[in-house]
Fold Nitrogenase protein alpha chain.
Amino acid sequence: MSEEMKLPDPSTLKDEILAKYPPKIARKRAKSMVINDTKLDQEVQSNVRTIPGIITQRGCTYAGCKGVVLGPTRDIINLVHGPIGCSFYAWLTRRNQTDPGPEGPDGENFINYCFSTDMQDENIVFGGEKKLKQAIQEAYDIFKPKAIGVFSTCPVGLIGDDVHAVSREMKEKLGDCNVFGFSCEGYKGVSQSAGHHIANNQLFRHVVGNDDTKPEGKFNINLLGEYNIGGDGFEIDRIFKACGIDVICTFSGNSTMGAFEKSHTADLNLVMCHRSINYMAEMMETKFGIPWMKVNFIGGDSTAKALRKIGEYFEDEALQAKIEEVIAEELPKVEARAAEARKRTEGKMAMLFVGGSRAHHYQELFKELGMETVSAGYEFGHRDDYEGRKVLPTIKVDADSRNIEELKIEADPERFNPRASEIKLETLQEKGLEVSDYKGMKSDMSDNSLIVDDITHWETEKLIEFYKPDIFCAGIKEKYVVQKSGIPLKQLHSYDYGGPYAGFEGAVNFYTDIETMLSTTIWKKLKAPWLATSATDPCICAEYVA
Ligand code: SF4
């Protein structure tokens, strides 16, 4: 959509959607559906319970803890304590990629396994701790891992198994294996976001800081909130290497326990998906004195901007020159591909309902394709993800948030070392670098765009009818419903079979994939058989053959 085009006012759409809800529910949903006015500070209600009966995109707390944060780490055994059904999230559903490690594919890479205690009725009635101990012992005997994480599912919380006591006991018994538990029962928070927080807490408590070996590089960073979906992390690592920047640890794409243990030796934390990992950045700053900056490696321009921020932070002329050299080498290829793709994508409309940062980050790539995001929202975002970090002091802590432990962190008496002075950080902020800060999605969206938090299926259908977008970005649960409406859907949790989409090469991949998806008319031909007007009406349908 060109700059002079204005988005349609979606007020009637909003009224029509809300009219179908009972009054109390309509009042609640109205607060999560905001018609954007960039001149106003509008509150976007988020991180509140999904209304029972509404079909949500969200996952549970355990899914966020095990699936998102710990799932991509290759040398920990993630043991799910619960019924086998929960272990859908124990298997590699997010396409996290990993290096095979020094021992090759047969080495310590456990992410393609599912480990579960497979609780049965008798464990629910008589308790599952004995079975959990046996499972930890069995996993240890077979694989001899460095670490075992134990993840609590709903039934475990309900019957009161103490996974922490069992983990402590087994850690002591095994001697050379770090065993620790997560109280991440599915019901613990309103979405997977609570699971991210719990995962951050336990990694910080049991792993970060366990190895003080000093790094050898000159510019040592951690990348937080990058999960190596479809190889995103590999592409970002390639760019860092070209610039001479050393990554101590990525939380948690392509990560290892050893990297987590040394992560406190870095000089800067770069935060990509702030929703899932800002807790870690804050705790590392308080305990070890490592500053953090928001970055976005989604989009060619964003990648260049993120690299320049790192250069400014380290205030090193040679590094800055190298970064400019890399950008000069990489960006023209990205811009050339974008210019070519724009012939088919310019003026098209996108909708994004995914994650707690992705619905924001990917708007950059659509902008580079000349496309407008007409509506967007998060599955598990909080108000600061929409409105910016400035609203944090005004967010009321409700009972659900209070349910999640807040670690009390203090400066480490020996290892606290402020990597940058207050004056330096203030100067960087004055130059526009987002130090300890991030803007929300709202300020980057156009006036009249519709922001919807925790969108429901009913709302999805009405939005599609109203906007008739050219592409919809969400996850597997929405994919087929949206495609049956004649709209192509790009999965932004798993990238379908594509990616990487981060960094320079990732941007090129994304342009090509979106250009291809927008160039096909196949989805428009989808029509329910009973809607075909004649035998020759273009219609793709299937019939059951016995
Ligand atoms: S909601 Fe509870 S029962 Fe369902 S997958 Fe999550 S932990 Fe398991």
